[in-house]
Design a protein that fits this description.
182 residues; mainly alpha
């Protein structure tokens, strides 16, 4: 095997490994991580709303509670709920273009890989050891996948960057200060 052939196989190996890794991470993000983040944010907002409403409602006098319920009964809650049941068009469009970009990058990387193989094999008449490259990448991919999966499941998804209670306290303090000043 010549030095040029070794370099060609290494170059193909790098591009193939990058392609596999990019596709795996993109799929892992879109099908797993994004769902965890969405659920976590939704749970935090629901918990915040429940805590804030329960605290305020519990501290109201009976007359204020009756007024509050009367105001709620006059509000078109079902209409408001229908408005927010629809997905946000900005979010939908953003996520569409985000996935499209990831797909185009993967297709571009695949095109580069195919162009490299075709060029090296047919234009430069160099030996490409496809079986060796594929086996090596599968082994590396399995190892990297195991490490990344372990990291995301055991470390990243368990990490809490900000205590929810401190965020809720900050929001409640801000709301209270706004009501006091008006």
């Amino acid at each position: 095997m010549s030095n040029d052939s070794v370099f060609d196989n290494i170059a193909i190996n790098v591009v193939l490994h990058s392609l596999i890794l990019f596709v795996f991470l993109s799929c892992f993000f879109y099908f797993y991580i994004s769902n965890i983040v969405s659920k976590h944010l939704s749970d935090e907002f629901v918990d915040f709303a429940h805590d804030a409403i329960d605290e305020k409602y519990d501290n109201m006098s009976l007359v204020d509670k009756q007024r509050f319920v009367a105001v709620l009964n006059t509000m078109p809650i079902s209409t408001i709920m229908k408005m927010y049941d629809k997905p946000d068009p900005v979010k939908v469009e953003n996520n569409y273009y985000n996935k499209l970009t990831a797909s185009l990058v993967a297709i571009g990387m695949l095109a580069v890989l195919i162009a490299m193989v075709v060029t090296y094999k047919f234009r430069c008449h160099r030996a490409i050891h496809g079986k060796h490259i594929i086996v090596e990448n599968i082994i590396v991919f399995i190892c990297v996948m195991g490490l990344e999966l372990g990291f995301f499941v055991l470390v990243a998804s368990q990490f809490i960057p900000v205590m929810p209670s401190s965020t809720i306290k900050d929001i409640i303090s801000r709301v209270k200060s706004n009501f006091k000043s008006s």
